[in-house]
Design a protein that fits this description.
The protein is of the alpha+beta class. It has 3 domains: about 150 residues, Sensor histidine kinase RisS, periplasmic domain (Beta-Lactamase, 2-Layer Sandwich); about 100 residues, Helix Hairpins (Orthogonal Bundle); about 140 residues, Heat Shock Protein 90 (2-Layer Sandwich). Strands 6-8-9-11-10 form a 5-stranded mixed beta sheet, covered by helices on one side. α2 packs antiparallel against α5. The longest helix has about 50 residues. The protein starts with a helix and ends with a strand.
Length: about 450
């Protein structure tokens, strides 16, 4: 039972902290105002209106009884007294009561007036209109064969304190809610800024000094996040520098070995050893590429169409087919994105005759599909392809000339931008690589 109620509340209530906090602050105030208003209308306004209406109808009954008499002088005298003392406008007409009712069904004033007139004059001997005139009520009552029309100020049956009460109960509520909105904005802004900083850091962006603000707990969270981000950045920088340094240092002895092998007389041995040294050098190049992919780079607005045209121009391969749909701008690390796309395209060119690149976007995603007509990969190897240093032994080896870091680097770059990479069988019976990035 409680689980079902919680599910309903989760669907109804807003998800944001600001709006939930606003409901916590504003709901009691609004409920209190409703209770006070209901109590006021029930115990004060309605009872006061009922007493005023009953008194007025009693005066109308007295006036109606006067007109049933025969003494015209007495009728004229009392009519003048009613006009002077009760601020009535009285007209006597020889006509029928109107057939169309002007009563408002949901008006407390109309209901009270109808109830009192009905109890005194009966069902079909009266008619009234409270909406024709702004500040005046018109009542017609039947007395013998005559119709007495009475017009009087609306304030006689509608206490003027109602508007004043509503004004004083509404304005403070609006003021309190406005103050609550301002304070809640100031309290939730640091949380929103911290969440944005965490999202940017998760995508690999540089995070500059975070200024803690807000409540003490939020300040502490921001301060600790800043310290954590700096530690992680320092660790990544040290790891990248270490990999880069080791790879760079190993290139020097490899170069000396190549020179020494070139001077050997035994060419068959020299050839075999040179091949091993070339492979080691290629491995070092891959290590350096992996190290570069870990280096922090500032995010900028990048035109994806121009980036792919640049890649196609550098490849200068007629078997590379590009399809672009509209201009697409993505905020990200340009060099890292170029390395990611290059790795995927290079794999396709190495093991297929034709590579087809399709770049498009949905509502909030950039979709890049790289499809080829190569031998493809078995489904059970899809996850293994993204493991660092993993080499396939099947007919299609994605890292035939490398050490198994190309796809790993590509996936790492895509994930650091908040996206992902999927592998499937393409329409050309080869491998289809889909890169999806948030815009």
């Amino acid at each position: 039972m409680s689980f079902g109620l919680n599910s309903i509340l989760k669907k109804i209530l807003p998800a944001g902290l600001f709006y939930r906090s606003l409901i916590i602050v504003a709901a009691p105030t609004i409920i209190l105002q409703i209770i006070i208003t209901v109590v006021f209308f029930d115990s004060i306004w309605i009872k006061a209106n009922k007493g005023l209406t009953r008194s007025l109808v009693g005066e109308l009954k007295t006036l109606s009884d006067v007109y049933t008499g025969k003494d015209q002088n007495q009728i004229n005298y009392l009519t003048e007294q009613f006009k002077y003392n009760f601020d009535f406008i009285i007209n006597v007409k020889n006509e029928e009561l109107p057939k169309i009712s002007r009563e408002r069904k949901y008006s407390p004033m109309d209901r009270s007036l109808r109830r009192e007139l009905k109890s005194i004059f009966g069902n079909s001997n009266y008619w009234f209109d409270t909406v024709k005139y702004e500040d005046t009520v018109e009542i017609k009552v039947k007395s013998n064969d005559l119709i007495i029309q009475i017009l009087f100020p609306k304030e006689k049956i509608a206490p003027s304190s109602v508007r004043l009460f509503i004004l004083w109960i509404t304005l403070p509520s609006l003021l309190l809610v406005s103050i609550a909105v301002i304070f809640l904005k100031n309290q939730t802004r640091p949380i929103v800024n911290l969440a944005k900083a965490a999202e940017r850091f998760g995508k690999g962006d540089l995070i500059h000094e975070i200024k803690p603000s807000g409540a003490s707990e939020i300040r502490k969270a921001a301060y600790e996040f800043d310290r954590m981000a700096k530690r992680i950045e320092r660790h990544l920088k040290q790891r990248s520098e270490m990999l880069s340094g080791i790879s760079h240092d190993l290139r020097t002895p490899l170069t000396r070995l190549k020179l020494q092998l070139a001077m050997l007389n035994q060419k068959d041995i020299s050839k075999k050893m040179s091949k091993d040294i070339d492979e080691m050098e290629n491995m070092l190049n891959n290590y350096l590429q992996f190290a570069k992919s870990q280096v922090q780079e500032a995010s900028i607005a990048t035109n994806i169409n121009e980036l792919f045209k640049e890649i196609i121009s550098e490849k200068d391969n007629k078997n590379l087919h590009l399809n672009l749909v509209g201009e697409i701008v993505l905020v990200g690390r340009r060099n890292a994105l170029k390395r990611c796309f290059n790795n995927i395209i290079e794999n396709g060119l190495n093991y297929a005759k034709n590579v087809y690149i399709d770049v498009n976007k949905s509502a909030n995603r950039l979709n890049i599909i790289v499809d080829d007509d190569g031998p493809g990969i078995s489904i059970d190897q899809y996850k293994n392809v993204f493991k660092p240093f993993y080499r396939l032994d099947e007919s299609r080896n994605l890292n035939k000339s490398g050490v198994g870091l190309g796809m790993s680097i590509a996936e790492d770059i895509a994930r650091s931008h908040g996206g992902n990479i999927e592998l499937n069988e393409g329409k050309y019976k080869g491998l289809k690589v889909k890169i999806s990035l948030p815009l």
